[in-house]
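Feature request, filed as a ticket because there's no other form

It would be nice if the structure record came with a short human-readable summary line next to the tokens. Right now we just get the raw output. Example of a typical job, pasted below so the devs can see what we mean:
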Amino acid sequence: MVHELPKLPYAFDALEPHIDKRTMEVHYGKHHAAYVTALNKSLEGAGAVSSWSLEDLCRKISKVPAKIRTAVRRAAGQHWNHSLFWTLMGPGKGGEPSGKIAGVIRATFGDFETFKSKFKEAATGLFGSGWVWLARNPRGKYEIVPLPDDENPLMHGMRAVLVLDVWEHAYYLKYQNRRPDYVDAWWNVVDWEAVSKRV
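Raw output as currently delivered:
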């Protein structure tokens, strides 16, 4: 299976002023593209594993041959994470959650403001690079899960519902070291309809 960079579902400038055009061009066109290239390279000559879907590579990472596991985990994780991240944002989105996700947030966190506060705490508290997720665990409970580097909920037997990229390349051109400001701005582009489909 040859892995490909998915088409971005909106223009590079569509999320402005919250996420700027230049960041999107570099983030998607350079960083995400590089992970796809690295994944294909790491799977060359890997036998049966090379035919696995991207989701299976993440979900069954422990079954990937040890000699390529780290490279595959890094590239597959980043490819899957970014591919989902793009689809959960959009122009003219944001605002209060609606649909199924609104019910999940109320039932789990009490209200949206509490959820946002806890999510921001996880996003600003994650040391170094990584991702912050709202995920459903195997027991059917929803929780905020900060994960380092290339990790994602699939690798931990969970279902990803919502995700924020907190690698510096996601925000540094516009926000520099002000990660909290980036987190606050990101809520303005979250596509709650798309998120609800993952509940």
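Something like this underneath would help us a lot:
The CA atoms of residues 77 and 150 lie 5 Å apart.
The mean pLDDT is 97.
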